[in-house]
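Exercise: predict the fold of this chain.
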Amino acid sequence: MEQSETQKQYTRKLRSVLIHKPMQREFTLVVMSLLIVSALTIGFVIHATIREAMMGGGGYQFGRISVYEVMSDVRYDLIVRVSLILFVTVIAIAAFGVFFLHRVAGPVYRFRNILRRVSKGEIPDEFRLREGDFFTETADDLNLVLRSLRERKVRIETLRDRLDRAILENTGLPIASLLQEVKETLERGL
């Protein structure tokens, strides 16, 4: 029963498709722009190639030859030109994708490394992402968590030192109140 509730909680909903709107908006707009430029360029190349063939330029003959014969000669030029434009477009989108995803994968990689260090008991210093990286708000939140962990660690170490001193020196410090402070600190979360 619990598993089905958990699965329901994490199912995709239409309103949750845009999780990080600035990143998804930028990626979508750039890819769409590249495709639109490619489509317009292909249209222009097709028009120019046919016009060139109809006007007699480029070694094509027109007159006694039918339009079908002209188009069959133009077909090869169109295939080559359109294929070249599509190839350049695919390369441009792939290059953009690699650089764009680097701005996403870089922060995720940093977060993962920091969380691994925290899981080993280390509390790393605050960190910053590169300019232009995504998830800066998540980095700020993680820095707040790290700062809080450092403060709590110092508080616990201070309490431990006071408790050790009280036990070793038997100075008459109220050990019960120190233990209560430790308990309250632990209950609030390290």
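Check your answer against the key: The chain has a mean pLDDT of 79.
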